[in-house]
Fold this sequence. Notes:
By secondary structure, the chain is α/β, with parallel strands linked by helices. Helices cover about 45% and strands about 15% of the residues.
Amino acid sequence: MKRIVTSVLALVLMAGAANAERYVMVTHTQGTDPFWPVVEKGAKDAAAALGVELEYNFAPSGDMADMAKLIEAATATNPDGLIVSLPDAAALGNAIRAAADAGIPLITINSGLESSAEVGALMHVGQPESLAGLKAGERAKAEGATNPVCLNQEAFNTALVDRCNGYFNGMGVSDGNMLDVSNDVAQIKTRTAAALQADATIDAVLAVGPHVCEAAADAVDEVGADVHLSCFDLTPGVINLIKEGKVQYSIDQQQRLQGYMPVVVLHLYNSNAGMLPGANIPSGPGFVDAGNAAAVAEQAGVNR
């Protein structure tokens, strides 16, 4: 009898596993940015809490055509939901729209807020990037900065362009210098140092990624420049730079939410006849500075 009960229980568990919801997440990381493992962790934490399956994919090349192919491949497996970042709507829009047209519910995250609805997404989870840049610029101006440069590691990424332009607008600068520094840490440091040496009047630098921030701080030290350095996102290294007074603040977009919330929303949508929040979910922006860095230090690079 015990053997029969055990066999029935095993069959029930197998049936449950076979019927589990399955979601696929595709993001534009190349695997070098410390921001994205936190997003992935958030998504997998949500999947584990809800008992659903999650597959996380990215194109190490960083090429948008390769990312589009990953989205197309995910669509072909007919998942219960698709979660995608949208850094380049022109390059990714057709692949995402095809998934929506195939009846796959999808949510965009992180970048592409303005294009989310037009590519067929149910909603977007992420911070308004222009607003985040604007707030960073307004604060830099209030703290005495006047002549900025913005370091962009992904020139194709509209979200990062929005951050830079928002920063310039917040500082009241109409012709700000947005510098393409690439995603290579050595290149980031070299190109930042070169820009500071070429123009001694630069007194403000915004790094729109955490690894960019750390490399920029090294460049500032190497050149001996006196600049107002601010950043986006958190790592233990960025927290230490804030504590040391080398970085004035970093914009926190709470990337764990960008991974966690789409899984929850898709689960509710699939389980409750299309239940959906009435608006996009903004995950930021917020400031981390000397006043609160210690409080979030243990979360940096883990959940924030």
